[in-house]
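Subject: for your reference before the review

Hello V.,

The reviewers asked for a structural picture of the protein, and I figured it would be easier to keep everything in one thread rather than splitting it across files. Below is the amino acid sequence we used in the manuscript, unchanged from the supplementary table.
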Amino acid sequence: MARSVARSISRHPDRRQFLTAASAVGCVSVFAPSTWAEGSANKEVSWLAETQQRPEKLPADAKSFPSLLVDKAGQPIRTVAAWQERRKELLAQWQEFLGAMPAKRDPSKPPQVKVLEADTVGNVTRQRVEYEVEPGLVTEAYICRPTELTGTTSGVVCFHSTVEHSIRQPAGLGKDVQKAFGLKFAQQGRIVFSPRCFAWPANDKMAVQEETRKYLARVPKSLGMAKMLYDSLVAVDILAKLPGVDPERLGAVGHSLGAKEVLYLAAFDERIKVTVSSEGGVGLKFSNWNAPWYLGTAIDEPGFPHDHHELLACVAPRPFLLVGGESADGDRGWPYIAAALPAYHLSDPTARLGQFNHRQGHAVPPIAEERIEEWFRTYL
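And here is what came back from the structure prediction:
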């Protein structure tokens, strides 16, 4: 079994080659200790404890995980410093599995954005922009910002779900207004950058199979999720440099497809201080993670050694809320939260990690909207 998994991973660069490449493209957070926004330690959502309670009855197929707080020598991890070493190892393993990044990037010199069109919606200026996500490869995004902003404010990168109209959804230009996080967050005083996923060659055209085929042909020692992670990092590079954005107060939010993207982004990029992941399917078996535009079929092989509780733990101690509705996420996600909480508790007894289950399917009902907004208002 181990050999079959090894074959699926061996097509990627070896660990030394990968870490060299990862450092070159700016995934430096693997080597940096976590920090959390100063001044927020005594400010909590009133329902935090609810998100950390084990469901009364777990599904029969709920997983259980061994402790992550064990070092290479098999010794218990009891300090933040020791956990940081373990975190480096976990992220390096995940990076090696994800494979090559599509290009190098310099976070201090993000791509220039060109405004294609702009309008005003109440107190928000909404801009459709284009930029080179890779050298010679242009994509689009929406920027929503408070029109009358003075000084600086928090910035949020917002990822659309699997809908034909892509970035028009978070910008408030789709029918699914409950997922218009870009527009709503700007109305509440934040600056939001909503990038288009690589599987959309145009804002109103989804071509997941074809765009994935083209990407994997161009970067064969890679996975689709590596491309999504790279594009997410570039989005944060741009967001952090936008006028009016406080680069120390950055967050990420996404639903469905977007929820998957924010999980990886939060784990790998410590600039992201607050995250909400809604109905993405935190477990590798919860949704279509084995699709070629995500992780591929290697994760289905017997003995595959990883799951996403590791990435959740790597976010610690930064606030992360998992939102489920008993579709992609729900009660069966509790073991993932439980496995990651000890890493959070090393830094602070008040772990800002939890799961809110609204039990209303693959949607963002009003109660979920309220809690997502409160999570950001409290911690960002």
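For the response letter, the relevant points are probably these. The chain has a mean pLDDT of 91. Residues 80-98 form the longest helix (19 residues).

Happy to draft the paragraph if you're swamped.

O.
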